[in-house]
Design brief:
By secondary structure, the chain is mainly alpha-helical. It is 62% helix and 0% strand. It has two domains: 9-44; 47-77, no CATH class. Helix 1 crosses helix 2 (28-39).
């Protein structure tokens, strides 16, 4: 793995990356790598696209999965 150091990052960009990292449950470093992978076409699918597909799939179910249940499943899966 290589190491890259960014200097003179504008505050607006730093705050935006920090918010995205928190939203996606990643470190700032992880979020930057994810952004670079997406921009460079190295990632398979963006999270928003996956969520849209999940919402469409959920509409076909005979039961409802609540946001709380999704969050609990995420937490359980990270253990």
């Amino acid at each position: 793995m290589a190491t890259i150091t960014l200097k003179n990052v504008p505050r607006k960009i730093h705050l935006n990356i920090k918010k995205r990292a928190e939203k996606n449950h990643r470190s700032i470093n992880g979020e930057i790598i994810s952004c670079l992978e997406r921009i460079l076409g190295l990632c398979e699918e963006e999270a928003d696209s996956i969520l849209t597909k999940a919402e469409i799939a959920q509409k076909g179910l005979k039961f409802v999965v609540t946001q709380k249940e999704v969050q609990e499943a995420k937490i359980e899966g990270r253990k």
